[in-house]
């Protein structure tokens, strides 16, 4: 399967959405609405997704699209683009640059390409399950280390207790050397480029996960749910780490 043309277009999508979002991230007056699940959304989220959908429809009119904000269009197509225009909207609306745009390409329901783009920091991470690059340079997860020497990240320290085994999560992070909430997609970027060791989320949507799978795997990491199963396509927990460390993480979460 030749993914090169799709990869080139994936990069174009990331760049174009980044150009759209960059000035809006500096707009402290941007109106914030609350969705049915109590998560925030802005005109920037919707506008970026509309932009991406228009570009895809013109380039690949037979492809399907699934987006967080605007729903599915031909989700059963052979090729489907999955979009999360701003992953980390809470960071976006508070001026914290630890958000990003997630773009995935699915073939017959499985993610084969993924991108994490942080336009303010100029970081574009692209993975195909075999290789992952940061701004066109190959990156890898860092060499294995003990859990006691690791940096463990999560998006929200309260969510594990709300949605999973909070006591097991607390026991896990108590063993880590560094624990931080450098979360949402940016935490997975840090694992993929070798600056953190573990990223954990206790509840995720498909558009949160799809792009992460080829990115983490392409960087030599492992991404599963908290039981060690494939994290996609279902709504799922997610654990990403180096292969050696993943087993210790999953054992601790149980």
Describe this protein with a few key phrases.
single chain, 254 residues, alpha+beta, 8-stranded mixed sheet, 5-stranded mixed sheet, 9 helices
Derived from helix and strand composition plus strand pairing, the structural class reads alpha+beta
Shape: globular
Radius of gyration: 17 Å
Strand content: 25-35%
pLDDT averaged over residues: 95
Walk me through what this model shows.
It is a single chain. This protein has 254 residues and is of the alpha+beta class. It is 35% helix and 28% strand. The protein has helices spanning 4-25, 43-59, 89-93, 159-163, 166-175, 185-192, 206-209, 212-218, 243-253, and strands at 32-34, 40-42, 64-67, 71-73, 79-87, 100-107, 110-118, 123-127, 132-134, 137-138, 151-154, 178-180, 198-204, 222-224, 236-241. The strands form 3 sheets. The chain has an 8-stranded mixed beta sheet, sandwiched between helices. The longest helix has 22 residues, at 4-25. It is globular. The model has no long low-confidence stretch (mean pLDDT 95).
Summarize the structure.
The chain is an alpha+beta fold. It has 9 helices and 15 strands.
Break the fold down into its secondary structure elements and pairings:
Blueprint: H1 4-25, E1 32-34, E2 40-42, H2 43-59, E3 64-67, E4 71-73, E5 79-87, H3 89-93, E6 100-107, E7 110-118, E8 123-127, E9 132-134, E10 137-138, E11 151-154, H4 159-163, H5 166-175, E12 178-180, H6 185-192, E13 198-204, H7 206-209, H8 212-218, E14 222-224, E15 236-241, H9 243-253
């Amino acid at each position: 399967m030749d993914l090169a043309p799709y990869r080139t277009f994936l990069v174009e999508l990331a760049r174009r959405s980044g150009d759209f979002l960059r000035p809006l991230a500096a707009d402290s007056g941007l109106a914030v609405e609350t969705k049915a699940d109590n998560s925030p959304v802005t005109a920037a989220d919707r506008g970026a997704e509309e932009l991406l959908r228009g570009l895809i429809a013109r380039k690949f009119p037979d492809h399907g699209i699934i987006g967080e904000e605007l729903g599915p269009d031909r989700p059963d197509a052979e090729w489907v683009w999955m979009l999360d225009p701003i992953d980390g909207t809470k960071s976006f609306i508070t001026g914290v640059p630890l958000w990003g745009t997630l773009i995935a390409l699915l073939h017959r329901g499985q993610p084969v390409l993924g991108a994490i783009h942080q336009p303010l920091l100029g970081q574009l991470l692209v993975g195909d399950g075999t290789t992952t690059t940061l701004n066109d340079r190959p990156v890898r997860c860092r060499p294995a280390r003990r859990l006691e020497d690791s940096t463990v990240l999560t998006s929200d320290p309260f969510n594990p207790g709300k949605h999973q085994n909070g006591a097991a999560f607390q026991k896990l992070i108590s063993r880590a050397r560094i624990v931080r909430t450098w979360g949402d997609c940016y935490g997975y970027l840090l694992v993929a480029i070798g600056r953190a060791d573990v990223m954990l989320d206790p509840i995720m949507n498909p558009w949160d996960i799809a792009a992460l799978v080829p990115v983490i795997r392409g960087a030599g990491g492992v991404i599963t749910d908290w039981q060690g199963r494939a994290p996609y396509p279902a709504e799922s927990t997610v654990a990403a780490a180096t292969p050696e460390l993943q087993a210790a993480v999953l054992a601790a979460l149980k």
